[in-house]
Inverse folding.
């Protein structure tokens, strides 16, 4: 029998307001075996009346970081996400087990190029990959195309700017689908064929593709990349539905 | 572990509806979330086929037209995804594994285990006991409509009493085997059997 993934008590050590609707939680764990960028954890909350709820969240931090970071988007009629994104305070505890998943995973040792496509909070597991890439000083060519609703909704905006400015082979392209600030230089529409064709590594470069976001974005981007001639086996997807909360 | 920590101020938003039908760690969703490891395959029905195999050797193969001429069974059932959502009273139509075996002229299943093979190279393992006796089908319709590609259309395995990753999307072959081999997610740390009522999410659960 394989060893069972045990529940352990995570303590919230820091809270970062990423956007008006998104918050990151830094957690300290008594027994963390380490993770690979792209993996997730299960979180279990127990209410005062004994009510329990369980959800999966991607790990947003690099394996090299000394804390496990989750990024939670508030879903208005959600049950767990409003608690984690509004109520929870430093020092609070809840149960967690992981890491889980071995498919939607990239480490620098696997090489590249790395082609990342994200929508909204789907950036979280891809951020773990970019943070890992930076932490190990990888020069693997990488491109991130990131779709957000508005400038204020861009999660990790300042950190992404810093990563892109490092001049180490990472290119980041933003597109804002609902509202753009004055003088906006990035994309202004949903991720489409023209955008993927322009910003993409050519299929001949055999990029490792990771797509994460709402179902419609993932379906569309994956289909376009197949049509452009990308190798199906190099395209990995993860879908964040509205029910993630 | 001992007592789990209580999350101050956390309470369920929704009234616990029919909780005896929702396994531990699951919650109800109104929509039908999509989870797949890769791009959705789009296969033309004229090129689609479904086969029963024994250790990789074809026993019987059906074209889309032939498959749809097989006896159709309707099933109302609850489904439970390992990512913690559940959905009650979903309606499916398809061909039961019992009827497939019979149409292939097989008195009984030629092996105790199966591996489902799908477009997109997905695989999953299911014991025969969990497929026969009306427990499993190859489904082509959901809520009265042809199954949408993102939900596994044109045809997916349906084994609703196991976590939903066992209900393999885009199924093309059911291969009968003498031993239980791990499929795609089962090789990546997910439980070999996946009973939601035992909360068998990950290896060792």
């Amino acid at each position: 029998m394989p060893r069972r993934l045990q529940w352990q008590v995570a303590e919230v050590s820091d809270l970062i307001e990423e956007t008006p609707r998104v918050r990151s939680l830094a957690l300290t764990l008594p027994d963390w075996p380490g993770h690979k960028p792209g993996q997730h954890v299960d979180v279990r909350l127990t209410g005062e009346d004994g009510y329990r709820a369980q959800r999966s969240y991607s790990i947003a931090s690099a394996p090299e970081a000394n804390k496990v970071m989750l990024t939670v988007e508030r879903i208005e009629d959600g049950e767990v996400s409003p608690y984690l994104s509004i109520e929870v305070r430093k020092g609070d505890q809840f149960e967690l087990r992981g890491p889980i998943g071995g498919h939607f995973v990239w480490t620098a040792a696997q090489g590249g190029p790395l082609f990342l496509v994200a929508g909204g909070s789907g950036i979280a597991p891809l951020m773990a990959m970019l943070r890992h890439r930076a932490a190990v000083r990888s020069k693997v060519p990488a491109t991130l195309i990131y779709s957000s609703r508005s400038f204020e909704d861009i999660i990790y905006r300042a950190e992404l700017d810093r990563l892109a400015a490092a001049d180490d082979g990472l290119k980041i392209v933003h597109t804002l689908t609902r509202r753009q600030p004055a003088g906006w230089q990035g994309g202004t529409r949903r991720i489409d064929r023209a955008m993927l064709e322009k910003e993409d590594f050519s299929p001949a470069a055999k990029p490792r593709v990771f797509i994460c976001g709402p179902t419609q974005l993932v379906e569309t981007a994956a289909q376009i990349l197949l049509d452009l001639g990308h190798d199906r086996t190099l395209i990995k997807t993860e879908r964040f539905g509205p029910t993630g909360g | 572990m001992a007592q789990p920590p209580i999350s101050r101020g956390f309470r369920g938003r929704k009234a616990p509806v029919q909780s005896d039908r929702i396994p531990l760690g699951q919650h109800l969703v109104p929509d039908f979330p999509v989870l797949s490891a890769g791009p959705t395959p789009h296969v033309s029905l004229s090129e689609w086929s479904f086969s029963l195999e024994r250790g990789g050797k074809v026993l019987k193969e059906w074209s889309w037209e032939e498959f749809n001429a097989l006896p159709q069974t309707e099933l109302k059932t609850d489904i439970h995804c390992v990512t913690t959502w559940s959905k009650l009273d979903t309606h499916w139509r398809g061909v039961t594994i019992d009827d497939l075996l019979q149409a292939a002229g097989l008195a009984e299943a030629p092996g105790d285990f199966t591996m489902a093979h799908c477009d997109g190279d997905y695989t999953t393992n299911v014991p025969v006991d969990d497929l026969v006796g009306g427990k499993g089908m190859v489904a082509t319709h959901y809520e009265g409509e042809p199954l949408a590609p993102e939900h596994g259309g044109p045809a997916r395995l349906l084994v609703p009493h196991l976590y939903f990753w066992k209900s393999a999307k885009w199924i093309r072959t059911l291969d009968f085997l003498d031993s239980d081999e791990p499929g795609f997610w089962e090789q990546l740390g997910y439980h070999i059997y996946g009973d939601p009522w035992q909360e068998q999410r990950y290896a060792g659960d």
